[in-house]
């Protein structure tokens, strides 16, 4: 009997690598999907996606180029005129918030799920221990899941968020437990060679490793 | 005092031209947005968009290229291996349904609304007198409107669908009443020079003109 397929949105970071590994453990064949959206670290993230997809033995990989995010701008990841903040995490929605990025990603993923007859979408969003992006909340995911099932030809697509309530330390621990190769993941917002260690994404990642009592295998600027 | 801005999704057809004209009459400054998505009549629709935007005196125009729809395929508008049906409108969702197209368009429109500080999105979806696409229903629009306000940084964006319950005859009548230049619009799914008159979109358009007792100003194949 053929397994059901799950479409996994894989950015190349730890969270999406673990979420996709969980999909595999849940018994799905993996359709690995990645979005190039003109972000600063596009090449490094794509490289991580390829390694993670290989680690997962994904049956199908699909890379989508979204050049228009550069036109949208108004955020530090796709607009080169806005610096990535490196002074620490503050309350509120940070300038690294790319407007409605996950909404756009999930909408395209929904169309691809129809193409590939996938029954579930896995996405590694984290609500509490994160940068505070509004499109990473359980409320948002549930709401867009309803909208997608109304707007699609099929109406039984389920968006799964197995990491939504985990801390970054939980994510590090579970990744090691599930055998995710964290050396293949990339989180830094700024750099593609050695991680900066100072942007919000590096800080969250390093905090997770520290709290889990583990050493991050990727290279940081000394 | 500056007027509020409305972002109008304008395909180049009658419906979106009228919806955008209504936005203008409602007192908004118009941000005219068009999506090239690899559909068969991409060039002709873009040409219509430019004319309609000029007719509206749109303050901002924004064209988004979405090449990935060609990769999604599984529909007759973006997959050249699937013929556009010309034998008449049937019940059910037709093969011209592009998976989650309006969901994807509205998601990108939401991000652009944040960029341009628009308070409303106008879209010319029609529920009853239409091709039966699931992403053209009031239920879907209300649902994605909620999702967008949860996922965006702002939470007061309103998606307006002034045509949702109109018939095609109503749309023809109102377009003439509002002074929409219907000669600048394009509906045919198949052709870019003279409309085929046989695809679902041509049939719906011609039925609207017939029921309204008016003559369609665009050219059809004899």
List the helices and strands and how they pair.
The structure is a homodimer of 222-residue chains.
Chain A: E1 5-9, H1 14-25, E2 29-36, H2 42-56, E3 60-65, H3 68-72, H4 101-116, E4 118-122, H5 138-151, E5 158-160, H6 168-178, H7 200-212
Parallel strand pairs in A: 1-2, 1-4, 2-3, 4-5
Structure description:
2 copies of one chain form a homodimer. The first copy, chain A, is an alpha/beta fold and 222 residues long. Chain A has a single domain (5-212), classed as HUPs (Rossmann fold). In chain A, 39% of the residues lie in helices and 12% in strands. In chain A, strands 3-2-1-4-5 form a 5-stranded parallel beta sheet, with helices on both faces. In chain A, helix 1 links the parallel strand 1 (5-9) and strand 2. The mean pLDDT of chain A is 96. Chains A and B meet through strand 3, helix 3, helix 4 and helix 5 of A and strand 3, helix 3, helix 4 and helix 5 of B.
Provide the descriptors you would attach to this structure in a database record.
39% helix, 5 strands, homodimer, 12% strand, alpha/beta, 222 residues, Rossmann fold
Strand order of the largest sheet of chain A: 3-2-1-4-5
Question: How many helices of chain A does DSSP assign?
Answer: 7
For the terminal residues of chain A, how far apart are their CA atoms?
A: 51 Å
Biggest contact: A-B, 40 and 40 residues
